[in-house]
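Sequence in, structure out. Go.
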Amino acid sequence: MLVGLLFSTSLRLAVVTTALFSAGACTGQFSPGSEPVQWAADSSTVRTAAGTHYDRSAVWQLFWGKHYRELWATPVTAPVLRLGAATPNGPLLPLQAGGSYQSRTLRLQAPTGQQYVLRSVDKDASRALPEGWRRQLLGGLMKDQTSVIQPYGAYVAAALADAAGVYHANPRLVFLAADTTLGKFRKDYANALYLLEERPDGDQRLTPSFGRSPRVVSTAKMLADIHQRPGSYVNARAHLRARLLDIWLGDWSRREDQWRWASFPGPGTTEYRPIPRDRDQAFFLFNDGVLTRLVSWVVPRYQSFRGRIKLGDVEALTHTARALDRSILTSLSDEDFRQVADSLRLRLTDALIDQALQAGPPETRARVTAYFGPLLKARREQLPAVALRFRRELTREAWIVGTDRPERFVLSATGKAGQLRVQHLVRPAAGPDSLVGDYQLSVRHTRRLNVYGLGGDDVFELHGRLRPGFAVGLHGGNGKDEVQGKNLRETRGITWYTSSNPDPEAPAGVRVKLDPERALNYNASSWLGRYKLDD
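Output:
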């Protein structure tokens, strides 16, 4: 522990010292209009670089990484976007500014009602720092580290998603002119490179890359629906395919607000399929400097895009979406993971990869193809092994999540030591119970299982000799919940966490405790508190 503390302290000192000597190296701010621009004779295109300010000395790159500085400093040709004349039917009107910790975005609306988003190519990582001395001291350094991002990676990611069979936006590079239609946004947004793409929201029946969904919704709306109505569900295999694509692209930043969901209603049911968005961190390259390599040891999620995906790095690569993954993927078996991974590996042929790498500015294609082609092909062959490791990370602490309707969860001994079967059934007001999930868990890979009933009057049935070898938590949530024993023998390791039952009666061998997270586990609405739902 002392060694770790000394290392962490030394690292902080190295960062602070280097930041002091590099004061003024980068502005720490996104500054539209700061790059030299060469206009075509007819003003329809420009030639400019995304970020010449990332072109640093050899000594600097030795310590803080070469990253993608060469691509950032390469002048590229982009069409000029004038909002006032952007469509045949009229202007694209700016609605609101936005963005995450790094990107700057501007939402636009066409006369047809279709909405688009402008996403700045250049980023500003210093915005993640709080206002004050830390931003003043480290802002320039943080800004410099934007060069870890492949500036045109979203182009390639979209083309590869299409090849993989995953829904996606269709970004195109534009240079935003200082149009009067920008209005109050003109000063902060004009004269810079942006990616223009469709906004995945609402009716998208005219957009094939969004599955022609009649209604695309946010993660918050999707989660609220699937945990309020048993007939609504996420296509788990489609979500797994999207998550394996994330790993393949080295995209570790997949927070819940970086997804949209294409809905497909049917009789009494709604299916959701994922639409990943915001590919800023795809092809992330961080650990190619002396000091950045040290930082990557301390912050494991900063995994660089290399030809080999280390199985030990899968946890860090997938960590930011862990709650979402546990909510959706627990129902899939080892065989499901193998099948999806094999299908993806076979689908991503060398020819498709080579074709996808032609996306992006012509001036960068040769370098992008030569560098990324061999790496993507090598990573593709590792997908089956990576998929199984991903499942191990998820099932180490497995979740089974119910709804606000009355349900029955049946936990049964399988006859094999260290194994447990869980069946999830909906209890309709009339008619027999309906099976909606069937799970098999093993002590070989699971340390803990949490079953969340959420709202409704739920029943947890325990059958047989229940000694799975891992802890099992039954979280009743709101409602009059029951835990029933059926031919129980030698039950061990099961705890009933109550939220609202005044006098719970549990079978012998089942411990009863007040749920320490009852504020989160109470119902479908409170359950949303487990996710990062900023947008």
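Check: Residues 149 and 280 are 7 Å apart (CA to CA). Confidence is low (pLDDT under 50) at residues 1-11, 13-25.
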